[in-house]
Amino acid sequence: MAKKDTAETLISAKLKDYKAESSLGERKVVSTSEKGKTYRVRFTEVMPSAVYTIDGNIITVGNRCDKLVLIQSDKSQNKWLEIFVELKGKDVDHAIEQLKATVDNPIFQHSTIKQRWARIVAQSFPRNTGNSSYERARIDFKKKNINLKRGTITMEEGL
Asked: Which residues contact 143 (CB under 8 A, 6 or more apart)?
């Protein structure tokens, strides 16, 4: 399958109308940053990936997160991982609302999506009391089969 065909079937026909921050390409590391916060994924092997700005680009009104990282996790099956990223100062509750609104948007629904993650990278987080808004959101996201995690200033994960 050609790169253009893969990109067009990735999310929906609508996504091809938006300019990627990092266009679809083969890489060992994909990264996105904003306001001193960074989210990065390192792969064990070269994988097709792309980064899109959601806020002000794909979604222009209402709550929306900052970025979408797309990784083709299985080339033979054309299966993809969506990672929704919110790069935040300190307002974690607002970050959760932005992620919830974004993951529920129909533009991000597609049969090729195998996994969905949501990530909050913030300057700091409130203390975890076991019943924090973050813990409640983590449970809510899990019910939707979305893995929610958080990191401070620079978040790096392996895949």
From this structure: none
64-112 pLDDT, tens per residue?
999 999 998 888 888 899 999 999 988 889 999 999 999 999 888 888 8
Run of H or E including 58: none
Determine the Cα–Cα distance for residues 149 and 134; give it in Å rounded to an integer: 9
Residue-range domain boundaries for the chain = 3-158
> Structure pTM?
0.89
Measured CA distances, 64 to 26, 41, 59, 76, 127 (Å): 27, 21, 7, 32, 25
CA distance linking residue 115 with residue 83, whole number of Å: 8
For the chain, report the end-to-end CA distance as a whole number of angstroms: 23
Rounded distance between C-alpha atoms, residue 35 and residue 70, angstroms: 21
Rounded to 10 degrees, the C-alpha dihedral 150/151/154/157 comes to -70
Both tokens of residue 157? 């994960």
Task: For residues 113 and 70, give the distance between their C-alpha atoms in angstroms, rounded to a whole number.
Answer: 9
